[in-house]
Structures are given as structure tokens and as C-alpha cells.
Design a protein that fits this description.
five-stranded antiparallel sheet; 9 helices; 32% helix; 27% strand
């Protein structure tokens, strides 16, 4: 098969692994810089051009779209969909998962476990917004933040009020969520391929850090999921419409709750922690499912 990996950086671990794993199986794998692609939008014959030439037809595209280029990246994936190329994650699903508020609303509608969350633009009563999620301590998040950036833990109601007022003064969109204290600064990254959880690791935040991101000095180890945790992760991926994703869940006293669904999860941490060939599992999925015009949305999103 001829496969394209959409990635800004060919040196990233995840990008290199996807190329190596595909070529080891006999596939032809090209790494294409998403931002250097441009679209030829014309009647009946959409195309993608790259470095002055029209790209050949690919049997499948693996999108690795960074949060900072979501709009352009999703548009490029949509162009491939219109060409009939099988996209491992479709444009609508990528956009849906990147919108934190929209994703939480969709998960809530499908009864997936979530931390209690508040969202407001100009609340008349900030105290009530804080009270509605259970009161301090609360987690306050920038809607556009990634990798733990723009996430603040407010230990008291007064601190929460001050932080919310400060963020609103900057005209930023924020979420206010209950703090899951019993999680102990840890979360579980569930890696889903084809609506099946294929691997999971527990990430523990560094000493004194409530965020468990590996980029912030956290550690990771293999974890065995409960039946509820596995079902929660699989359901979250299904609701988002993602074939390959990372679902981050917290272990709360009222069961597993989803913090985020990541449409371009890194492979390094999960492969090291679990010793599994995650890149190979992604190709297992592609080899079974990649057929022309099989995208559900067909570029309609």
C-alpha cells in the first residue's frame, strides 16, 4: 500500500515509528509536512499539491495534526477525503476532539463519565460557577491549552475567583472543573485503535505537580484496566468518531472520568511503558479497513 503520514516533523519519535513500521510491512510510506501542502479545489477533481507537484493517490493517510494547526490540518485531511483516500482519523472527528467544550458536551450527551464542568463567558455570579462544580479546590483550564499549559489548580474559592476574573479580563475562554483529589496527581492514558483499547499506561505527576503530563516530568508505567475503565475509553473514542486516539481518564470515587480525547497521541511513552508495537497495531487496522471512498464523512464535514 502507498501511505502518507501528515506530520510537521519527520524526526519526531511517533512519525519515525510510523514510517519504520509501515516499511517493515512492505508499504511505501511518505512523510508529508502538512503546512507545505496546498489544495487544488476544482470541480470533480480535487487534488493536493506539494513542493510544486500534485501528490499521487494514497491508499491511506495517517494524520498527525498538532493542536496549533488544527484548522488547516483538518482542512487538508478533508481534501484527502474528497479524493477518496482512506483517512485513519477523519477531519470531522479531529475538529470535534480538539474543541474541548464541544467534546465534553458530546461525551456528556452519551453518558460518558466526566468531571463536573462549568463554562461561562461573563457569569453574573462567579461564586455560583465555582459552587456548581463542587467548590474549591477546582481546576481552571484555558480552552485552547495543550500538554498541561494553561491549567491551574485553585486551592480556595477566593483564589479561584481571582484566577477566573484574571482570565476573563484577558478575554479568554475557560473551563472550570471539579478537582479529582483521589486521583493523586495521576491519570491513565488509554490507547484506542479501531474502537478497542490496545494499551494503557498510568502517568504520575512529578512531586508536588497535579498535572501528569510526561512533558512536565511525569513518569509512566504499565497498568491493568478495569472493565469500566476500558469501556469508558472505548465509548469516548466512539463518540468522538476517532479510529486512533489517546483517551485520558482519572480514577474518581464515582468511577472513571474522561479528561481529554487526543486525536494525535504520542507513541513514545505508551510503547516504552507497555513494550507494545503500537505503530504496528495501527497498520493492522489500516490493512483491514483502508479501501477507496470508505470514509464515513466523505469530505462532508
Amino acid at each position: 500500500m502507498k501511505i502518507a503520514v501528515l506530520s510537521r516533523n519527520e524526526k519526531l519519535y511517533s512519525t519515525r515509528r510510523l514510517k519504520e513500521a509501515g516499511e517493515a510491512r512492505g508499504h511505501e510510506v511518505d512523510i508529508i509536512d502538512t503546512l507545505h501542502c496546498y489544495m487544488d479545489i476544482t470541480r470533480s477533481r480535487p487534488a493536493v499539491r506539494y513542493h510544486g507537484e500534485e501528490l499521487p493517490y494514497y491508499d491511506a493517510v495517517i494524520p498527525r495534526i498538532g493542536a496549533s494547526i488544527t484548522f488547516y490540518g483538518a482542512a487538508m485531511v478533508r481534501q484527502f477525503e474528497m479524493m477518496g483516500t482512506f483517512c485513519v482519523n477523519e477531519s470531522v472527528a479531529i475538529s470535534r476532539s480538539r474543541d474541548k467544550l464541544r467534546s465534553l458536551q458530546l461525551l456528556s450527551r452519551k453518558d460518558v463519565g466526566l468531571p463536573r464542568t462549568g463554562f461561562a463567558n461573563k457569569p453574573d455570579d462567579i461564586k455560583d460557577l465555582i459552587k456548581n462544580v463542587g467548590g474549591a479546590p477546582v481546576v481552571i483550564k484555558l480552552l485552547e491549552g495543550t500538554q498541561g499549559i494553561g491549567v491551574v489548580l485553585a486551592e480556595t474559592n477566593r483564589a479561584a475567583e481571582s484566577i477566573i476574573e484574571a482570565f476573563m479580563g484577558l478575554k479568554t475562554n475557560i473551563l472550570v472543573q471539579e478537582f479529582i483529589k483521589e486521583a493523586g496527581g495521576a491519570d491513565i492514558r488509554c490507547f484506542v485503535v479501531g474502537n478497542k483499547v490496545v494499551a494503557a499506561m498510568k502517568r504520575q505527576g512529578a512531586e508536588g505537580e497535579f498535572r501528569s503530563n510526561l512533558h512536565r516530568g511525569g513518569s509512566a508505567k504499565l497498568v491493568r484496566l478495569t472493565k469500566d475503565e476500558r469501556a469508558t475509553a472505548a465509548n469516548a473514542a466512539k463518540v468522538m468518531g476517532l479510529n486512533v486516539c489517546g483517551v485520558d481518564i482519572l480514577q474518581s470515587k464515582h468511577g472513571p472520568v474522561v479528561m481529554e480525547v487526543n486525536s494525535s497521541p504520542g507513541l513514545e511513552g505508551i510503547e516504552i511503558a507497555t513494550k507494545k508495537d503500537i505503530a504496528g497495531l495501527i497498520y493492522d487496522f489500516i490493512e483491514v479497513n483502508a479501501k477507496p471512498n470508505k470514509n464515513r464523512t466523505r469530505g462532508k464535514g
